[in-house]
């Protein structure tokens, strides 16, 4: 039995403390996750080129078929991994913290107190979903490999947890930012237009 199958509350490691409320929960959309985190379109294009090269160079029917079949299998496996990753992930916002329950074989929960989040960054994609990256201040024991693919790309030295491929990411990002500012009264909030890009860097919506 998987650990998350016996959760007292979906996506959380235990019961909420008295007074804490869940404000939002969501999970990645697996098709978008497959394209953006597992780069299925790029892999498909790569194998299509290899198949074309094999065809042009006279590699023979077996070589062409084997190359094309390898590409189909690779993309299918990546899509399966994206589906399993999205199925095993639950992002939760409460009025005190952000919780990421992630992992396929070894699920784990990462608790991010709102007071520890220094900025909330947003990248929107066509179709309405997007990514919300959270920059954590102070000492942190977050490993990039342990977070991936729920981590902002290329931020390896100081990993930034990221809510990937979520619906209405602009609304969720603004909600997280507002509650972070409530936990850090000295901050400032300035909603930004969403960046319609396939990858980060996102627009900062709180700091």
UniProtKB/TrEMBL annotation:
Pfam families in alphabetical order: bPH_2
UniProt superkingdom: Bacteria
Transmembrane parts of this sequence: 43-66, 72-93
Stored InterPro entries: puhB_PGC, YdbS-like_PH
Annotated keywords: Membrane, Transmembrane, Transmembrane helix
YdbS-like PH domain sequence ranges: 87-171
Protein name stated in the entry: PH domain-containing protein
Species lineage: Bacteria, Pseudomonadati, Pseudomonadota, Alphaproteobacteria, Sphingomonadales
């Amino acid at each position: 039995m998987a650990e998350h199958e016996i959760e007292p509350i979906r996506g959380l490691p235990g019961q909420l403390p008295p007074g804490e409320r869940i404000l939002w929960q969501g999970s990645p959309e697996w098709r978008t996750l497959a394209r953006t985190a597992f780069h299925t379109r790029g892999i498909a294009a790569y194998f299509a080129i290899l198949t074309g090269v094999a065809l042009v160079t006279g590699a023979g029917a077996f070589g062409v078929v084997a190359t094309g079949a390898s590409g189909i299998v690779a993309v299918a496996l990546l899509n399966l991994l994206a589906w399993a990753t999205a199925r095993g992930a639950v992002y939760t916002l409460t009025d005190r913290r952000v919780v990421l329950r992630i992992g396929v074989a070894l699920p784990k929960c990462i608790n991010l107190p709102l007071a520890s989040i220094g900025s909330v960054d947003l990248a929107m994609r066509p179709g309405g979903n997007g990514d919300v990256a959270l920059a954590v201040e102070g000492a942190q024991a977050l490993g990039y490999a342990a977070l991936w693919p729920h981590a902002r790309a290329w931020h390896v030295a100081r990993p930034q947890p990221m809510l990937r491929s979520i619906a209405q990411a602009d609304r969720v990002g603004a909600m997280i930012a507002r509650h972070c500012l409530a936990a850090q009264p000295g901050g400032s909030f300035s909603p930004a237009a969403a960046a319609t890009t396939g990858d980060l860097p996102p627009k900062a919506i709180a700091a």
